[in-house]
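Here's my example:
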Amino acid sequence: MQGSSRAAAVGSREALTGALAATADRSRLAEELFAVVGALDSNPTLRRALADPSREGADKASLAEQLLAGKVSAETLVVLKGVVGQRWSTERDLSDTLESYGVETVIAAAEAADRADRVEDELFHFERIVAANEQLRGALGDQTVAAEHRAALVDSLLQDKVAPETLALARQAVVAPRGRRFDRTVAGFLDTASARREQQTATVTSAVPLTEDDRNRLAVELASIYGGKVHLNTVVDPRVLGGVKIEIGDEVIDGTIMRKIDAARRAMGA
């Protein structure tokens, strides 16, 4: 985001915070925010009107209220007015921020139910499953197939197997990719979750599944190194043979046996 959009995102956050505090039905709030994003994406005229930097913020907020009062909850309207009342560098920055607030609202619902870690784990692993299955990846990403059919496919795969918040985010990523690949959309959702929870995320690859004790110990060690909470996304890959590979931010700590074998081969000129 450019400077004015960064300031707009900061300025609009109070509206989201207030809406989350005011409503117990965060699922509805998230659904409505996602629906508003869809409406803006499909209606360029409306999007330009609400993002127009030459119009007064109060004027744009009034327009939003005229259009949506009685059609969405009071909390959703508060968030929307708080967002459109700011000055955005681009129209996309406005809709991206609304989408991120929808994701945050889903995560807030998971936090209230004490399953935010579970949601992050499930969403990460679903993306990995999709990435490894070319047929499934194609089916979920086929924009010529109606959105409701793609949503139904997600339901058939995840219904009653994951947390409701995981299902909501997986459906949203498939139904409204907004020009992005599924993996990029999910990565963005997970980044939003990490930012909301004020944590860093580490992807840990090992030859065998880590035990819960291993996960907890590694999370504590990484937190002591990087500061703050660290959430682990784990990947099992027998090809690494042993040890672990850790990716956190832009850093990679590769302590796998395969890496050591590769290093030995290079040293021998193989």
Q: What stands out?
A: The chain has a mean pLDDT of 92. The first strand starts at residue 199 and ends at 206. Residues 24 and 109 are 9 Å apart (CA to CA).
